[in-house]
From TrEMBL:
Keywords: Heme, Hydrogen peroxide, Iron, Metal-binding, Oxidoreductase, Peroxidase. It is an enzyme of class 1 (oxidoreductase). This is Catalase. The keyword 4Fe-4S does not apply.
Length: 487
């Protein structure tokens, strides 16, 4: 008889009774031989994997990227060549500092992690809804995140630690101004922009390299919440952004983003007045205007949140021929840390999970064994060249894998002495001041209220250090915050 409708155990055996444990008599103790009970409880105890250290709570959606401008002049990347080409995508939106149970409407940057399932492998752009970040060097990242998480003794959020860190690191001024402005609380994930944030590289068939920044402009417009609106929404619906996305996709109100890039020829980076690899800075559009290249549409919710959203393993190190890294120090650190975090959270074979394996390409390599090794990816028949292929290279088997030399990245010229550079012609205040002066009067008032409300909880010496930073960005900026703090 077809047992497709039977409840079964994990080994496929039909279960006659799933509601009553095996006991020694009606009122007696349970028996260890009730293997179904043991299986259910043991699996339940292991249903959770460690949450992400950052970006713990998020929303994932599948979609399509359509190329509207051919970029073969700049890159050999397949998904950026050929007008009209469509590529399957997956986007994970998230809040950064909160835990899995935190509210979606917190004042916090929003993660904007995009995966292209290209014919030459998965290409991930793991950015935020801000074009900049608090730091320019990844060695500071663990310390920064410690200040954003809970105090080790009280287990409460700690404004003193947060502002103390920023006071010692004025490079954060630009991003702090963004975070504390109206942009700090997006109303939902659909009505916000996304950015690759980092500088990446492109290279073309001639071996020419270009530096690039990715921008994703919401076609739904940008809508933000005030502190009062956010506080109310957090109490009414902590899952507001998740719910908003589910409703939009269910109603076929598919959100879209216009994809744009800024492109800088390689040689210009050496003389440009801003360090183009400094994540705390933006490239002025007057110097490097936005170039529209395509459209991103999100149109399908995952079937299983845990399997696809919780276990998706986005990483900046997922690069493809034609797209590479840059000397951006934060990016260089993330190239290691993100993939390493996925190995810790999910396991060494995390890329064999359906959401992570290449959907439009085949993975061929010599890596074997480890937890969950197998052929879990439904998009291809084998993890490697076949179960009988060699697990080393080079080899002389008939199925020997060859280097794809035609996709080699052109050499990057390096010049300089190995050292730990703490100061290098950096200006931590001009762009923060420029942003402040762009705000309308009412937004300046809300910015000052938000900063002073939080900064007032820090010690006086930290407040004074921060006031010096705000004043260097703009005198009026510092004076308003000083007045709000009663200083």
């Amino acid at each position: 008889m077809n047992n497709s409708h039977y409840l079964t155990s994990q080994n496929g055996a039909p279960i006659a009774d799933d509601q009553n444990s095996l006991s020694a008599g009606e009122r007696g103790p349970l028996l260890l031989q009730d293997w179904h009970l043991i299986e259910k409880l043991a699996h339940f105890n292991r249903e959770r994997i460690p949450e992400r250290v950052v970006h713990a709570k998020g929303t994932g959606v599948y979609g399509t990227f359509t190329l509207t401008k051919d970029l073969s002049e700049f890159t050999i990347a397949d998904h950026f060549n050929g007008v009209g080409k469509q590529t399957e995508t997956f986007v994970r939106f998230s809040t950064v500092g909160g835990e899995m149970g935190s509210a979606d409407a917190e004042r916090d940057p929003r993660g904007f992690g995009l995966r292209f399932y290209t014919t030459r492998g998965n290409h991930d752009i793991v950015g935020n809804n801000t074009p900049t970040f608090f730091l320019r060097d990844g060695i500071k990242f663990p310390d920064f995140i410690h200040t954003q998480k809970r105090h080790p003794q009280t287990n409460l959020k700690d404004p003193q630690a947060m502002w103390d860190f920023w006071a010692q690191n004025p490079e954060a001024m630009h991003q702090v101004t963004i975070l504390m402005s109206d942009r700090g609380i997006p109303a939902n994930y659909r009505q916000m922009h996304g950015y690759g944030s980092h500088t990446f590289s492109l290279w073309n068939a001639k071996g020419e390299r270009f530096w690039v920044k990715f921008h994703f402009k919401s076609q739904q417009g940008v809508v933000n919440l005030t502190n009062a609106q956010a506080d109310k929404l957090k109490g009414i619906d902590p899952d507001s952004s998740q719910r908003d996305m589910v409703i939009a996709i269910t109603d076929k109100n598919f959100p879209k983003w216009t994809v744009k890039v800024q492109i800088m020829p390689e040689a210009e980076a050496n003389t440009y007045h801003i360090n183009p690899f400094d994540l705390t800075k933006v490239w002025p559009h007057a110097d490097y205007p936005l170039i529209e290249i395509g459209e991103l549409e999100l149109n399908r919710m995952p079937n299983n949140y845990f399997a696809e959203v919780e276990q998706v393993a986005l990483a900046p190190s997922n690069l493809v021929p034609g797209v590479g890294a840059s000397p951006d120090k934060m990016l260089q650190a993330r190239l290691f840390s993100y993939a390493d975090a996925q190995r810790y959270r999910i396991g060494t074979n995390y890329n064999q999970l359906p959401v992570n394996c290449p959907h439009a390409a085949k993975a061929n390599h010599h890596q074997r064994a480890g937890a969950m090794a197998g052929t879990q990816c439904p998009f291809q028949g084998s993890q490697t060249g076949g179960d009988t292929s060699a697990n080393y290279g080079p080899n002389t088997t008939s199925a020997a894998l060859q280097d794809a030399a035609q996709f080699a990245e052109p050499p990057l010229r390096l010049d300089g002495e190995a050292a730990r550079y703490s100061r290098y012609n950096q200006d931590d205040f001009s762009q923060a001041g420029n942003l402040y002066r762009m705000f309308a009067e009412d937004e300046k008032q809300r910015l000052v209220e938000t900063i002073s409300g939080s900064l007032s909880q820090a010690s006086l010496d930290v407040q004074q250090k921060m006031l010096a930073h705000f004043s260097q960005a703009d005198v009026d900026y510092g004076q308003r915050i000083a007045k709000a703090l009663g200083l």
